[in-house]
Amino acid sequence: MDKYIIQGGTKLYGQVRAQSAKNAVLPLLAGCVLTDETIKIKDVPAIADVENMLRILGEVGCKIVRRKEHTLIDSANAVSHEIPPRLTKELRSSVFMLGSILTRFRKAKISYPGGCDIGLRPIDLHLSGLRRLGVEITEEGGYIECRAEKLVGAEILLDFPSVGATENIILAAVKAEGRTVIRNAAKEPEIVDLQNFLNAMGAKVKGAGGGTVVIEGVKRLHGVEYTPMKDRIEVGTYLIAAASCGGEIETIGVPAENITALLHKLRENGCQTYVKNDKIILQSKGVLKSVNLVETTPFPGFPTDLQAQYSALCTTAKGTTLVVENLFETRYKYAGELKRMGADITVRDRTAVIRGVEKLHGAKVVAGDLRGGAALVLAGLQADGVSEVADLSHIDRGYEGLEYKLRRLGAKIKRVRI
Ligand code: EPZ
User: Which residue of 112, 170, 192, 290 has the smallest Cβ count within 10 Å?
Assistant: First the structure.
């Protein structure tokens, strides 16, 4: 197991190039089984969730050639409609495979993807959407078995704009007979990226990014070379780091409109921001005032995936911040660790009250989930003294070379094996 050793108190200066978006690449990889021709995806990030997804594709029978600048996925010999339980547990987004495997094989079997570090993570919206397309689903012994004589387009209304359910239904509908309309669909930019990818393969998907997605089923999809969008949550994490440490950074690859809610909050905190195309410059004196309230909501609201990182910033902003997490049940696991660093946080259910303190002090803390782990790193960067963040396996799921990118900005952080 590895840990970070962080000497806090350094301002951050320089440029950060975004990685490809984890939450775009995962559904794109699932989409590769929709054709028996080879797909080339460029700049696939070296992060654990992606490596696990490639392992799942390998188990299904896809041939993978993994290079730094691109990854080739050849699904011509994909044979298995079953995803092994050990991999489903590893990776919740293996659920996205349901829709694409059903399209390919008309049947699918996965073990029930357990909850994870941040909540129960139900999949009822995925399954009800697939049933609307004609899929028969049985759930027993911890397995979900799906069968569909044929997939037929349908009108689907999502009770909640679930990202995963929207993506899974699109992947099941692209070669269904007729038209599928998904209402109350998720509007996240990653859905637009999936639409662009599938249309480049010959699909007919439109409306992603708005609340209604319309898919006209087609007979065949062909191979394609595709470059995924860049990771708005990774870039948001670096912007929050610079805001709380002070300094000036420029991020490259993510257009401001993909993280407007965060930029509004950081300006309210007292940061200066300048945007041009896919470049964002943030300047901060490091002494911030608190915003009164931040609530996570589906896109374009404040992203739940930046809630933990932003809460770390609030620990030393002047004043009190009320944080409300509307998406997941237990996304405050990091709060206890921040308290060990001197933060004043009170958590009740989905709400956290954070009273700004003068300074955090270094401490030994343990990451409990992906974004909570990133929050602890950000706290260590701004704290007085030395912090250690253990159990980096969570952070490695979503951040490519976090310590390298932070060191290039001047942070004093190193990774050691324990
Ligand atoms: C995706 O998860 C992301 N993961 C998450 O990022 C992100 O936090 C989430 O969307 C919200 O933006 C990937 O894209 C791989 P949801 P997903 O379905 O699809 C409820 C990260 O850190 N719900 O939009 O699982 C659910 O309980 C990860 O990168 C149902 O009730 O999110 C939650 O309250 C964490 N029934 C809400 O919807 C369902 O069938 C949002 O879930 C599905 C979801």
Answer: 112
